Amino acid sequence: MDPDGAKEVAEAATRLGSRLYRTPVQRAFWVGAPAKVYLKLESEQVTNSFKARGALNKVLSLTKEQRAQGIITASTGNHALAMANACEIVRRETGEEFKYEIVLPETASAAKVDLLKAMGAPLRFHGQDCLLAENEALRDAKENGKFYVSPYNDAQVMAGQGTIACELLEQLPEAPAAVFVPVGGGGLIGGIATWIKARSPGTKVIGCSPVNDAHMAHCVRAGRFVDVDTYKENGGLTLSEGTAGAVETDSITFPVCQQLVDEWVELTEDEIGAAVVDMLVHHHKAIEGSAGLGIAACRKLASRFADQTVAIVICGGNVRAEVMRDLLVKYVPADNSS
Predict the structure, then answer these.
(1) How far is CA 318 from CA 17, 95, 138, in A?
(2) Domain segments of the chain: what residues?
(3) Across residues 107-129, what is the average pLDDT?
């Protein structure tokens, strides 16, 4: 995103209008005392994920001719749901009958795959992580003249995600001292940081990643793109499916993260799992692993923000029932009565 990135975020907010939800912000007294913690519940968004914003902004920004080429994308699941939703909205509004296709890694969440099938989305599976699926979609786009939409490496997608910050600063009682944001490819934190730093420069933007798959954090620390073949933290397996996978080489999100993200926190699988369970036990909402990242990170750093307002982006709620069951068995005592 260029220096006028905040303008692109504002334009995205206008473009999206009332097509998506203005998601709620709720106080969470059970997280991070002595900080005053608020949750931005993107898990309540259309498709149960923030991804609806970037996908719809992108499809709306395309010309009729670009859409007619056919749209192809790649995703671990949430961006796929968002693209299916976006394409159906634009088809309905315009009367266009453009085609689209979604390439998913073979490891994509079964819950998200089932929902995509129920939506009638055309799917193809390729590879074991999102980067391999992205490369396959890029190959298809190049060879067959389709229009490729990246799940994060795209200015309009990143600007769409940034509309979360537009709402957040209006909804909070005061400018936050910090905002905790999950990080995968960097589109979410890139869009949010662009708006935050333009409108509330004193707010710290804190990137949250699993220890097992913190590729963007490693790239930023190294000052360059780290080869995915050399990135094998604990096998790269994580509850945080929505942030999993390597960052695309030369992604536009990388310099934004370098310049605008103030701090990086990496969370263990136990910290992520406990955060997901505590959200259900104490806030009575089911969230996916990636949404637990901000909660876990806030708990680690809360003492630094005593009596200050902080916000956590709860990025999605697409969690498999069996995953939640196993987490409850592991982290909730049998006699828990919360």
Answers:
(1) 24, 30, 26
(2) 5-50+155-331, 52-149
(3) 87
What are the strands of the beta sheet with 36-41, ordered from one edge?
25-27, 36-41, 309-314, 178-182, 204-210, 263-267
* pLDDT number for residue 235: 60
CATH 3.40.50.1100 fits 5-50+155-331, yes or no: yes
CA–CA gap between residue 258 and residue 274 (Å, rounded):
29
Six-digit token string for 58: 């992108």
- Phi, psi dihedrals of residue 20, rounded to the nearest 5°: -120, 170
Is residue 49 within 8 A of residue 43, CB to CB? The reply is yes
Spatial contact of 11 and 25, defined as CB atoms under 8 Å apart:
no
CA 317 to chain centre: 11
Q: Are 38 and 185 in contact (CB under 8 A)?
A: no
**What is the rounded distance in angstroms from the CA atom of residue 247 to the CA atom of residue 253?**
9
pLDDT at residue 165, rounded to an integer: 98
Q: Which of 196, 187, 122, 106 is nearest to 151 (CA)?
A: 187
Whether 236 shows a pLDDT value over 70: the answer reads no
Q: Which residues pair with 49 in a beta bridge?
A: 316
Domain 5-50+155-331 identical in fold to domain 52-149: yes
Cβ within 8 Å of residue 297, ≥6 positions away: 180, 206, 208, 265, 267
- Say yes or no: domain 52-149 is CATH 3.40.50.720: no
